[in-house]
Automatic annotation (TrEMBL):
The keyword Signal applies. Residues 1-28 form the signal peptide. The keyword Signal applies. This is BZIP domain-containing protein. It comes from Eucalyptus grandis (Flooded gum). Residues 85-169 form a coiled coil. Keywords: Coiled coil, Signal.
Amino acid sequence: MAASKLPIGAALGFFLVFALIWVPSIRADDDGGAAKAAAAEAAAVGAAESSALKAEVEQLRSKIQVLDSFLNEKTRELQTKDKVLAEKEKIIKEKLDKVASLQSEVSSLQKKGKLDAAAEIEKAQARATELEKQVDKLKTDVQSQLKEKEVLESRESKVEKRMNELNAKLENVSFQ
């Protein structure tokens, strides 16, 4: 922004030096035409500078609107990801509870002693094998969901970092 003001400032400075050199050469018998011309030229330079500043302000306002829109979009994305994470955590908790329940059931079946021990043991072992397969499957599901959760948290962290950077830029633009 300072670089864009430099040519305007240089032009204004040049104009002032020119005016200081030229104004003393105006004679007393001059009808004021030269003074009017100098005033008109100063007004034209001021109008050009004002127009440039207005354009720059409009450009900055446009940038602020774009950044605000981007910020709102990222906020919505974060909220959506938070909901997804909460759902994933709920599913993980349910599956962990089911794993614990199945392990408890396996333990309970293994402790029971019945008269028909051979048949019961065979049924229990079949059930235990089936339950162990289910436990293994659930553990695999839980692990994959934990990995997915980590990926989502990593993405969320990156988005938050980017959002903080954009907020800082937005604040810098707002204060300039």
